[in-house]
Specification:
Elements lengths: L1 H22 L3 H7 L5 H9 L18 H14 L1 H12 L2 H7 L2 H13 L4 E4 L15 E5 L2 E12 L6 E7 L9 E7 L5 E3 L13 E10 L5 E3 L4 H36 L1 E2 L2 E2 L4 H25 L10 H26 L1 H4 L5 H13 L4 H13 L8
Parallel strand pairs: 1-4
Antiparallel strand pairs: 2-3, 3-7, 4-5, 5-8, 6-7, 9-10
């Protein structure tokens, strides 16, 4: 175990160095201008191996445990969430569905280019009338004259218009609820694909988001990744994405804590450093407790997971819920302890706080995670429509 921990420490140190030197200097500018990272920067991440950490060597990856990818995501997300998002998508996002559920031909066609950064894949699940109630989606894949045709729209799609490929969850039959849902991959430049105007979100400002419209988009049979009736498998794989999401929140909380630890020792009021005030000590202790608790929950869910292995969904729901709530609280406490400086854009704390709310909404809100926690703990299913 010691050797593996040493290797993980090396990966983490490299990620922290690259993030700070390559992406840190532009983080505030990318936020202000709502600029995503460039293709050149994505290819650079691919060259360093950051986009293929968990993928099998046969597709160009390094076949490392999931915790290695999560460590890299965390270090990048402390500095630049737009850069971290590329690593997140490649290692814990929709590419995982292809790696775990796709055909051999699909893996060979898409994964090597995702690992190098030539392609990136976004996931399209939510719709205007189907957010937390994902199985209410109406985007549909139909057979027409021997062809598969996709019609509908998706909303709140992170990296929409930037990603070259989209894993689209859609209804494939008249079966009710989840039984009729599967997933296909659609290319950005496929005839009939249109993108709406960019959404101006509270956070996520270097991660583009917009609505996607599918108007009679022809989908080759070879691009059907998951057929109807396999929604459960899709959401089991989605647990990997939720661990990536939880790690993004962990990074925000850790960054807010690190900055606050430094600030309260440097800043003086009433003739002494802030850290000398007991109220500050109590607040700082609460921040440490919250961040470390979330970290341990994520580690419990991710430890020992190799390529193709699925996490315990209960542990994932607990970790995501705890980390999402922690990031909101800790970034808020950091702003309070920084006073007026915390409220100023130049210090970056308000950016951490805004992004914390975004990660709490993405991938299933804390409210939905709480329902899943009870459902998974008791082995019961709760019908929210009853």
């Amino acid at each position: 175990m010691k050797a593996r921990d040493d290797e993980l420490d090396e990966v983490r140190a490299l990620a922290a160095k690259v993030a700070a030197e390559r992406f840190g200097p532009r983080a505030a500018e990318m936020e202000e201008m709502r600029t995503p990272i460039s293709l050149e920067e994505r290819l650079y991440l691919g060259e360093l191996g950051f986009l293929g950490i968990v993928h099998a060597p046969e597709y160009g990856g390094s076949g490392q445990p999931l915790r290695h990818a999560l460590a890299v995501i965390e270090e990048f997300a402390k500095v630049s969430r737009p850069a971290a998002f590329q690593i997140f998508e490649a290692n814990t996002g929709p590419a995982q569905v292809v790696a775990r559920l796709g055909s051999q031909e699909q893996k060979e066609r898409w994964l090597p280019k995702i690992v190098t950064g030539e392609l990136t894949m976004a996931v399209a699940i939510s719709e205007a009338e189907a957010g937390s109630a994902a199985t209410d989606m109406s985007t549909r894949l139909s057979e027409r004259d021997g062809r598969l045709v996709l019609n509908g729209s998706k909303r709140w799609i992170s990296n929409a218009s930037e990603a070259e490929l989209y894993l689209v969850y859609c209804r494939m039959s008249d079966a009710l609820g989840a039984k009729g849902i599967g997933a296909v991959v659609v290319s950005k430049d496929a005839p009939g694909v249109r993108f709406g105007k960019p959404e101006r979100l509270m956070g996520f400002r270097g991660i583009p988001s917009c609505e996607i419209f599918f108007d009679d988009v022809e989908v080759p049979q070879a691009d059907v990744v998951v057929p109807a009736g396999s929604f459960g498998k899709l959401f089991e794989t989605f647990s990997i994405e939720r661990l990536g999401n939880a790690t993004m929140s962990l990074a925000i909380g850790q960054a807010a804590l690190d900055r606050t630890v430094a600030y309260v020792q440097e800043r003086t009021q009433f003739g002494k450093p802030l850290i000398q005030f007991q109220a500050v000590q109590m607040q700082l202790a609460d921040m440490v407790l919250a961040v470390d608790s979330a970290r341990l929950l994520i580690e419990r869910a991710a430890n020992g997971l190799g390529p193709g292995e699925a996490p315990d969904t209960l542990h994932v729901s607990i970790a995501k819920c705890a980390a999402n709530e922690m990031a909101k609280r800790v970034s808020d406490w950091a702003i309070q302890l920084h006073g007026g400086y915390g409220y100023a854009e130049e210090y970056g704390l308000e950016r951490l706080h805004r992004d914390a709310h975004g990660w709490a909404i993405a991938g299933g809100t804390p409210a939905m995670q709480r329902i899943r926690i009870v459902s998974e703990m008791l082995g019961l299913r709760f019908d929210q429509r009853a």
